[in-house]
Task: structure prediction
Amino acid sequence: MHESVIRELREFASEREWEQFHTPENLAKSISIEAAELLECFQWGTTDMDAAEEELADVLTYCLFMSDRLGLDPDAIVRAKLEKTREKYPIEKARGRSDKYDRL
Amino acid sequence: MHESVIRELREFASEREWEQFHTPENLAKSISIEAAELLECFQWGTTDMDAAEEELADVLTYCLFMSDRLGLDPDAIVRAKLEKTREKYPIEKARGRSDKYDRL
Amino acid sequence: MHESVIRELREFASEREWEQFHTPENLAKSISIEAAELLECFQWGTTDMDAAEEELADVLTYCLFMSDRLGLDPDAIVRAKLEKTREKYPIEKARGRSDKYDRL
Amino acid sequence: MHESVIRELREFASEREWEQFHTPENLAKSISIEAAELLECFQWGTTDMDAAEEELADVLTYCLFMSDRLGLDPDAIVRAKLEKTREKYPIEKARGRSDKYDRL
Result:
């Protein structure tokens, strides 16, 4: 993410004195809660795409609060994990399959 | 996020022919599943921070796949939602309180 | 649930001195975590039904631990909620529709 | 659960012609969604216990719809899983510890 978004989020929380609530555990709960609200947009097979956009933003927002709280760079951890996943799912074995790696 | 991360994610999925699995609904399920794995790092009150970093990366990764699939800019939707949240939680009313806005 | 199942669960936790971990909050987290493992059986559109049965059992187990911890009778709270839901979704309005009640 | 609760749930869904929406996958999503609403009662460290009771009832309700849909007896699957868990976590090794079994 661009650093300026992180700064805006920090300022938002700071102005409201909300950093006290942003423990890693509370943020982990919040990410799960917002993820479920996103899932709710797809609950019965139909979809409300405008609502989905907003809920996705909520999940992302809490993820950014959490990476900031843990002193992590969101781009860097995504890249580091992608590197690991590339090795776990080599192109030849994984092509066109959604199996878990232990069934490839 | 920086555009280059998005490009790497696209390439990763494309090489494995995984775009077919990345429907908005499947991605919404995946975000919830990874969010719960992150929560599991805090399940019994203790924390495994290294595991948390990796699970947070997984949640972010699926969020980026989803925003890309929906044609959205992750920074932009976070900012747009922040603007709404600022209005819902005015500084004076929200300071130091974790209540939902309807109880402020 | 039959009382004998609740008794077995209590005994299981007590023998392992696990009641100390079974705070309402930890149980709420555990229910979300297990629910996501159940969801994972349906992640990519295919299903592993044997795994689903076991994950469903895990969700139920933590729900029973929680109702027991809160001094609630699981049958009774399901019935009480059903009564409320019946009123919220009158048969004539709700028939064949999956809309949320505010869109009926 | 007592069979009469299951019967009431069946009747509730049937009257509203909602069985069509109760696919195993939709129910799995619904269980995750309701589990997150339960978790929300504990989001910021404070708790709304009345709300928690009702959300727990919602999780249980969808679990019962799902076990019924899969032709499973909820008591029986809880018992079967408990038997497995007893073996995975022998009393002597597990006493007073919340580690995952692979770290016992």
Notes: The mean pLDDT of chain C is 94.
